[in-house]
Amino acid sequence: MRVEDLKVYRKLFKLTQEIYQLTITFPKHEMYELGSQLRRSSNSAPANLAEGFGNPHTNIYTECINRAQGEIRETKHHLRIAFMRKYLIRKKLDYLIDENEECSKMLFGLSKSLKAKKRK
Fold first, then answer.
1. What is the DSSP code (8-state) at residue 120?
2. When you count CB atoms within 10 A of the terminal residue's CB, does the N or C end of the chain come out lower?
3. Which CATH architecture has domain 3-119?
4. Are the C-beta atoms of residues 35 and 61 closer than 8 Å to each other?
5. Pick from 14, 13, 25, 32: nearest CA to 89
6. Mean pLDDT calculated for residue range 9-20
């Protein structure tokens, strides 16, 4: 099995691409500020998952999942700031927040299953 086989990884990877496309529409002065922060945090979520994937030490894999969760929370914060500054419309904000929330729930389930597997 590869990390690319995980539905949550594919979903996070797709969100990274969508957020990149969004940020290139931001005003020029935001390309290296909010745009950069959004691109980095959205990319870090699947990157952290990939980093921990397949690690024989469950604690390390779980820690990478926890870091991915933190990056999702950071991404949602930056998206709300972008909305407040009128860089995206409510419909796009809601969609991106909902997709990130779904990924967060999927990661929670993955983490829970890893912990249960470790206890056996």
1. -
2. C
3. Up-down Bundle (1.20)
4. no
5. 25
6. 97
Cβ atoms of 108 and 73 within 8 Å: the answer is: no
Name the residue with higher pLDDT: 96 or 3: 96
Closest CA to 53 of 43, 62, 44: 62
Spatial CB neighbours of 73, under 8 Å, sequence gap ≥ 6: 104
Where b means 16+ CB within 10 Å and e means fewer, 46-70 reads bbbbbbbbeeeeeeebbbbbebbbe
User: What is the per-residue pLDDT for 114?
Assistant: 83
Sequence-distant (≥ 6) Cβ neighbours of residue 61 within 8 angstroms? 52, 53, 54, 55, 114
Q: What are the tens digits of pLDDT across the range 51-94?
A: 999 888 888 889 999 999 999 999 999 999 999 999 999 999 99
Arithmetic mean of pLDDT, 109-114? 89
| Amino acid symbol at 78 | H
